[in-house]
Amino acid sequence: MEVKYINPFLESFLNVISTMATIELSAGRPRIKQDEIALGDVSGLIGMISPQVKGSLSITFEKGLALKIMHNMLGECPDHINDEVTDMVGEITNMVCGGAKRILGEKGYQFEMATPMVVAGKEHHISHQAHGKKIILPFTSLNGKAFVEICFQENG
């Protein structure tokens, strides 16, 4: 998987979280992910396709960070992951993917996006839409961790 596909998603993710939730995240070291088990408590997953590649993006949040984002974005203070929190995670996933789509479009890559799906619960599974390598990028904050997973495969 090429960096030209990954960096727009990371740039968009950091921009959405800092702008919409006023939370600064620190990026960790990327690695290849071997399984489908989420490392957090709630995940948004969205599929994408272009003439060149197909793939998917997932964003997983630990409970503490998801609740802090909810508080900062909407002023609500739930004590657990509820329907409003899962809706927010779906919307964040959509915004991140939309931002990346815009950046990639400026470079000549046109993507179509599916509707985000959200899954919650301890050790839930994330099933990517492509069969390429899964790159996972951890992010830390004072309120918990987030994990961005990207999986693309060349069409052909």
Concise structural overview:
This protein is an alpha+beta fold and 156 residues long.
Which helices and strands appear, and what pairs or packs with what?
Blueprint lengths: L2 H19 L4 E2 L3 E3 L8 E8 L3 E9 L1 H12 L8 H24 L5 E2 L3 E4 L13 E8 L2 E11 L2
Antiparallel strand pairs: 1-7, 2-7, 3-4, 3-5, 3-6, 4-8, 7-8
What does the model show?
This protein is α+β, with helices and mostly antiparallel strands and 156 residues long. The protein has one domain: CheC-like (Chemotaxis protein chec). The protein has helices spanning 3-21, 63-74, 83-106; strands spanning 26-27, 31-33, 42-49, 53-61, 112-113, 117-120, 134-141, 144-154. Strands 1, 2, 3, 4, 5, 6, 7 and 8 form an eight-stranded antiparallel beta sheet that branches. Helix 1 (3-21) crosses helix 3. It is globular, with a radius of gyration of 15 Å.
Name of the level-1 CATH class? Alpha Beta
What's the β-strand tally?
8
Low-confidence stretches: none
CATH superfamily: CheC-like
Over all CA atoms, what is the radius of gyration?
15 Å
Provide keyphrases for this structure.
eight-stranded antiparallel β-sheet; Chemotaxis protein chec; globular; 156 residues; 3 helices; alpha+beta
